[in-house]
Each structure stands twice: as structure tokens, then as C-alpha cells.
Amino acid sequence: MKSAEDKKIDGLIGKELDKPVLVSRGKVDVVFFSMILILVAAGLIMLFSASYAFAYYYEGSSYAFISKQLKFAIIGLVLMYGISFVDYRWLAKLHIPWILYGASVAMLGLVLALPVLDPNLPYKRWLPLGFTQFQPSEIAKFSIIVLFAYLISKYYKKMEKFTFGILTLGALLGIVCALVVVEPHLSATVLIFLIGMVMIVVGGAKFKHLLTVGGAGVGLLAIVVLTGVVSYASNRFKYWIDPWADAQGAGYQTIQSLLAIGSGGLFGRGLGQSRQKYLWVPEPHNDFIFSIICEELGFIGGACVILVFALLVWRGVTIAMSAPDRFGTMLTVGIVFQVGLQAMFNILVVTNMIPNTGISLPFFSYGGTSLIMLLAQMGVVLSVSRSSAIEKRQ
Amino acid sequence: MDFTKDASTVMGTPTKSMTQRIMAIGLIIAIVGFGWAGFGLLFQSIIKGPGYAAKAADQQLTTVSLTAKRGTIYDCKGEILATSATVWTVYITPMDIDKDNSESDEQARLISDGLSEILGVEREKIYEMTQKNTSYVRVKTKVEENVAKKVREFISENSLGGIIGLEESSKRYYPNGSLASTVIGFVGDDNQGLAGIEYQYESVLQGIPGKLVASKNALGSDMPFNYETMVEAEQGKSLVLTIDEYVQGVAEKYLEEAVVSNAATNRGCCIIMNVNTGEILAMATKQDFDPNDPFTIKDQTILDQIAELPEEEQKDAKSKKIEELWKNKAITETYEPGSVFKIITGSAAMEEGKATENSTFDCPGYIVISGTRYNCHKHEGHGHQNMTNIFENSCNPAFIEIGQRLGAKTFYKYFKSYGFTKKTGIDLPGEMEAIYYTDKNMGPVELASESFGQTFRVTPIQLITAVAASCNGGRYIIPHVVKEIKDNNGNTIETIEPTVVHQVISEKTSKAICDMLFSTVNNGSGKNAYVAGYRMCGKTGTSQKIDKKDSTDKIASFCGFAPAEKPEYAILVMIDEPHGSSYYGSAVASPVAGSIMGEVLPYLGVEAIYTDDEYNSLNITVPNVVGMDIERASSTLTNGKLDVRVVGNGDKVVRQAPAAGVSTPQGSKVVLYTEEEETSKVTVPDFSSMSVSGVESTAKGAGLNVVISGVADGASGAISYKQSVKAGEEVEAGTVITVWFRYADSVE
Predict the structure, then answer these.
(1) Which of A98, A160, A278, A361 to mutate to test the interface with B (most CBs of B within 10 A)?
(2) What is the DSSP-derived secondary structure letter of residue B685?
(3) Domain final residue, candidates B186, B217, B238
(4) Is residue B682 included in any domain, yes or no?
């Protein structure tokens, strides 16, 4: 049953906006936009600082990583700005949610099949594209957000029903998670699972149902752990508690990260002055870049990064809640919480608050496709902000 | 799937529950999630940070130690006694040797072959080193620059850069070999002082090693982006000793000769000291060692003795002997001073008024103290003697009587005041303390034996320091061997001034002691220490060893000083367990002291004052008359109180013997050759065991000139025991031969 208000809103704007426009003419959210620019700029500076010794030794040029990342950042920013003009509602049209989801599942399957063709591949995470390679799990993450946003906003009234709110969405989420976890890519699995769950919760699923499923989930997890499917993860657990138990092996990365953070102290050694980046921290430009930030800029610098991410989430929530429609709300929530959760998990790993799972820091860690994907999604949020009622309500 | 049944429009606005849940989750992520992350950051960077920072520094920084050049040791005239030069340590990093190719083991073989050839280290030994799994193994230390250069070439030819390495270090050189070795000491493999001055002044000499702190990456190589801190090495400071290379050389020459010729089985030592400053000019122990190679015994006599031992004992005996040779006998061993100690007993009694120069003593040949009978070395007794006589005669009963007059308490007061109850404090390591009775446990019998220097033990340095105090006006001065400390630019940083501790006896008593000891050398038991013109004073000693059953193991010693009227230098000679023709201090030690002081005192600029007899028998330096015609040459020589003998028929002198500049007694015959081919050879006769006049007439008969040494010319009772040119050798007529004499009748 629609409330009177719903009917009124549907009547006023819903129908009018039912047909998406090609170019969004509203004003972009300046605060959110500025924060992204700040994060991209800070990310590039820190990536250069963190990567140059590693690049010098292993790539022959100190600029090996930064020059690539800079290109991707420019492409990503242009793409983001472009996307912000495209009405996000196109994502709900033309069966795009389903196409995206189907394509993701297909690619995840393909990635798993690749080692059969080439047994030398250590991980089943990457899909080679000739000129580059990318992780289908990145696409899968986005496809879940789009599909869930679409389904929840369209069938929000059915969310309270166990069959739809829990079983149907849970199955769609479960398929993707199952494909990702056997890659194995635990951190991506956890992230996708959490984003899916957040969207289900926001969408209106009943807590009673969620608790039931949660209990079942814990049981399932126990079985998985006991049967040793994720045995490598249980090892990670062991060295999380005491990384010094294998200081030269499994605990090495964590130890080097902690030594970097500790060396920074309150104010840090100063920009560019990290010593741990001299091959001590393995791949200092990737997942553990936050430790180099802390060594160079200290607790203060690290805290600023955390604060900016928190502000980004807050601003994202504001945009989501003032979106003109549920689809925009759900889309924004999914994207923004995804970035927030990823940053949070990364920092928890780097500070050894949770076991090492191999998760990158958005905007900072090296990686072309993921940066472009990230900025493209930011473009979607900006697109929502253009259509949002922020200004109208003011 | 068909969802259309309950489908609402996609574009409806969010429900209230949605916004509430978004807010709630947003707050959870922002506060719980990021709060947790923030706490993690705070915990790791601030709370645990300092510990991590230290660990990080440990792994990031490499510290290369820069060796400090060890300071030089100079003698008092600036001659180098010990110096350091740059050498290299060759090491390998076995860890990095390619051992995967285990069948051929090529690299390990290449290294062991190559280094073995260059360094002369056994190939098998190096091969063993290459099989270890460590990062640093020394192959050879103290490799000199020219060899190091070859190693460097070998490294670059075979690209063994990371595997063979060279480290700079320094090597200690002692240009004079064994000279003053027991004083200077030596250094170990790491240039650390292990004995003597090198050990005592380690902190001054060693300097402060510098550091090069460089950051490194995880691969161990230096970072290209510089972080380097250099702390320059502070060069070691140099020492100027009070030791005089020349004086030390003379002392060692005669001491070594005495140790060998008297077949001493427990070495000997000699100290020469400035009595007014406490400066040690010479401190010799024989046998000793070569500090350039301190672990090798070079003395053939000792090697022969060891070779006689059963084979299984040889190794132990050798290492025991080496350690013994390192010891500075003058300070690290105690001995019974014997009659030399009578100087102390006598001076104490005079200072206390228990005896004066005019006191008289009657010696019946023995004395009985508390039922113990002490015999005099002269069994029939010395009869009636004054104070001077008892020194000359070294009369035991008289000194026992003096001791009893003093009493244990007063005797011990002087024993203490003369510094025998504690170390002298000389700046050398290993000084021993004396072993003695205190006034509490000293009965009349112990007092009696201590009065003439038996039943207690002191170090030679304690004794000479006490004797110095007795003759320098009564001041006890701490002896020392380091005069100045200089920085490496040659600027003096510290000068060690004489330390006068206290007055032991009055100047008056001191003067009286000098007079009596002068008489002892001139007329009494010390006459073998006589040096013409230099007024030697002193006292001999022949001591029994408490701890030795064998009564032939004695110690012969002499301690004296010169010149009598204002003493400047004291000498102590101690020969431990002589087994030659005599074991008496007068026969074994006094001539050594006389010979040494005879050469040293003129060098030290002590003014010679000759008696008329001495003046008349003074040696003359032969002038040059080559090239002169016969007549002029003859008159030159005869005016110079020399005789002339002409050989050949020429007009001019073409050669002369002895040559110009040689020192010879007045009236010596100078042979002048007037033709080139002409020579007049004579055979050197055996001058041993003759009186002075006998030697003089024998020499005259053979056409040779002699210098009489050890006694005043014309002295009767002295017997020759040594000559500078062996009997039976062919020499040119007129050659000057030195013959040494000593008194055989004197005992004690």
C-alpha cells in the first residue's frame, strides 16, 4: 500500500522523471567533488613517494608507477566528470542491471577457468585483456550495487518478505561471493558481501529475518573454516595475533608495516623521508601505502586521511538521502559505503587491528583499473548529486 | 524471474525506514569503523611507536666502524718505540658463495686456490671457511698493502666483489724489536693493548673509532638517496716515555750478557731511575720477547731447555714460558732484597738517633737473638767497626743489632714510610705487592732477619724507589714511565710532573747514607760497581730465597746511585738464580751496574770529577796523524802522552793503529805505517784471571794497548774476567782491547 505522501511524490516528480534525461543539468555537489579531488591529489603524491625506491630497484625508473597512475588518474577524472553529466537513471534502464550482473558472473567464471588453460597463474583474480588486465571482482562489486539498487528501489515493498528480501537477494549475492571466494579473494568477498548486506538492510529487510540468516551464516562459516576451505586465512589469523612468530615469512609484511608506522610517531619523518619504503615494506605502493603515509606524515597525517574518508562517507550519505528517487539513494549508499568500508578495512589491516587480507586503499594504492572504476563510480554519485534535491530543499 | 507483480516505480523517493537505516549504518561506519581504525593508528604510532622505531633503525642502519690510528710511543728523546701502520683484514662472506653447483663447487675452489696463493694461508683451511653459512669469516688479518693490492686484483678479475672483502685496520710496529719490550708491552689481533704501556694506556693510545652510519635497503645495499652520518675517528694520543732508548739499550746489553754468562735460571732485571723526579730511564728484563711477534720464543737457551722435555709436556711448557717472558720482572715479581736492604735499616736507625756515623759495633762472627744464632758471612768476625765499616763489610750481626735497637714498631714505621707496604703506583700494569711481617706479628727473630733483608719480599721497583728516597734528600717520589701525552699534531696535552709523596728521612741522614755508600763502592763490598770519575755509591745483596729448597738458588743484586755529592741517577741490577762461577751480588751484579753506569752517566751529562790517580790514567782519544811526515806525527803523538812505533821506510804516515778517534790509556803505543803493504799482525793473548798489572805487561809484550775497566787503575786484588777481543784472534799491532776486572774476594 502506498502512503498518501508516496502517491503525491509519485504524481509530482516520479512520472516526470521516469524517463531519464541524457544530460543532467543540475549542479554537482561541490563538497563531495572537492573531497574526491583532494583524495586523488593526496593519493598521487603519496604514491609517488611510497613507490619511487621500489620502482627504482625493480622497474629501473623511480617514475615507473607514478607515471602510469597519473595517466589513469587523468583518464579517471575525465571519465568521472563525464559520467556526472549522464543521468544515473540510465543504469536502471535497458536491463542494464541484469546485463552487468550476468557479465560479472560470466567473467568470474572465466577467471576461474583460466588456470585450466594456463596452469602457471598463481591466482585466479585477473582477467587479461591484452593491453592490460583487470579484476572481474571490481566489476562484480559494482554490478551488485547497481542490481540491488534497482531491485530494492523497484520492489521495496517486498523487502519485508523473506523470500524476496532475504532469499532472492541473498542468492544473487551468494553466487557472486561464492565465485570470488574460490579465486581465492577473501577480502573482496567480504567487501561484496558486506555491501550487499548493507543494501539489503537499508532496503528494508526485517531484522528477524536477518538474524535468522545471520545465525545460519555463522554456522556455514564454521563449516567452511573447519573443512579448511580457507585454511590460508586461518594462518593469517595466527600471524595476526603474533606476526613475530614468523618475522621473515608470514609475519614480515605486517611487521614492516608496524615498523613504518612506529617510525613516524606523531609528526612523521617528513614527506619523502620514509626509510621503510626502501624495499622493507613489500610493495609499499600497494595495500600498505598507508604505513608509508604514517611514517612520513605521522599520526597526524594518518588521522587526516581517516578523517577525509569519514567526511566522504558522511557527504555521500547526505547526497543519498536527498536523492530524488530510491534508485539514486540506493546507488549512492552502495557506492559510498563500499569506499568507506574498503578504506576502513585497509587501515585496520595496516595497523594490524584485523588479519592481513590484502585490501587496497581507495585513491592511494597503485592500480589503474581500480582507480578508473572508483572514479567512474564517483561520477555516478556526482550524477546523483546533480539531480538531488539538495538545492531544492534549501 | 518475474518481479512485476509487486513492482512499484523505480523512481519513488526513499522511505523513512531507508533514511533511518542509512543514517544508522553511516554512523556505525564513521564512528565504530573509522574510530577503530583511528585507535589502531594511535596505538601503533604513538603507544607502540618508539619500540617499532628502534627496531626499524636496527634493520635500516648499517654502522661501519672507522679505525682510529693508535698513538705512537716515543722515548724521551723522540725516538719511536712503537708505531702503527695501515694494514688490511681479508674476509669472505661464505653465505653468498654459489653452492648450488655442489658437484664442481667451482667458486669455493677458485676462492680457496686464489687466496691461498696470495695470502699463504692453507688452502684446506680457506675451503673449510667457504663451506660455512655465515656472512663474515676472517681469512687473514694484518695483510700489508702490497699483498692487499693483489687480493683486490684477484677480486676484480674474478668478479668476487660481494664475496671477498678487505677491511682497513692497523698493525703495530716496534722498530727496536725486543728493546724495552716488557715495559712497552704488545697488542693483540684487534690492536688492543695486552701488556705493558700498551695495556696501561689503552684508553689514551687507542683513540675513539669513528662510525659511518648509512641507511640500507632490505637487499643490504646502500640507498641511492643519501642518508649518511659520519663520525670521524679520533686518532689515538701519543706517549713520550721517560725511557731513554740509549740508556735502555746499554742496560739491556750488559744485563743480557750477565744473565747468560752467569747462567741465571730465573732471568734478571735492571732499573735506572732519576732519583729526583722518579722518571724511569731504563727498565729491562732479560730474557724477554719481541713485541712484533710476542707469541714466539726466540731465545735459543730456552728453546733448548724446552726441547729436552718429554714431547707431551713441550706445548704446555712453551706457552707457560711465553707468558713468563711477557712479565716485567722489575715490577711483577717479588724477591728478598738481602743486604741491599741494609740501606733502609741503617738510614732508619740514624734518623731515629739509634746510630750515628760514629757508632761502633763489635762483630765476633755471630749474634744470638732470642735463642736464634745468626752467623756473619765472615766467620771469624769483622771485629771493631764504625757505621761506615758495617756498610763496607755488609756485616749482618751489626745490622741485626741496629734492628733490635729500633724495635719492631719503629722498624715497621720506616718500612711503611719507604713505601714497602703498598705498590709504588708506577704507571705500568701488574705491579705486585710486597710480602712482609707487620709490626703486630714481627717478633725479635723476624725483626733480626728483616734487618738484613731476609724473610720478606719486595719488588725491585719498590726497592729502587726506597733507595732513591734515601739518597735524594729523603723524599719518597712515585716512579713513572710516561712523561708526556701528545695529540696527533704533536702538541703536548699533559705533562706528568714528579709526585713527591712525603719526607722519609732528613737531608742530613740522606747525606750520611750517600757518604757511607760511596765508601762501600770505593773501599768495600760494592767496589766492583766502581766507575772512574763518577763517584758511584751503592750496596750489594746476595739473598736466599725463602721458597727455594735448593740453597744454590740465590739472588745476586746491586742497588746504587751516582754521583755521591748530589745523587742524580739510581740503578738496580738483580740476577735471579745465577749458576755461574759465583752467586754473590758483588761478583755477579755490581760489575753489571758499574759497566752500565760507566756508559750511561757520561751520556746523561753527569759531570766527571777525577781523582789525581784517575786523571793520570784517563784515556786519550788518538789524534789523526795519517798524511803527516814521521817527525811531525811523532811529536803530535808524544805531546799527547802517547808512544810511537814506526813500521816501514817511508817518509809519511799512510796508516795508523789504533785509528784516529779510538780511546786508549795514556802511554799507549801508536803504530805508524809508512808503506802501504806493511802490516804488523799480532795474536791476542788470553787475558783471563790476571791482575791489572799482569794484563798491562802481557799486552805490552804482545804490542797491544789495553783499557782497564771495572776497577781503578793499579787496584790490587781485582781479577780480569772478560776481554773485548777473543784470545787467539789476529789483530793489528796497537789495537785497543778492553779488559774487565772484578774483585773476587768480596762477598755478600
Answers:
(1) A278
(2) P
(3) B238
(4) yes
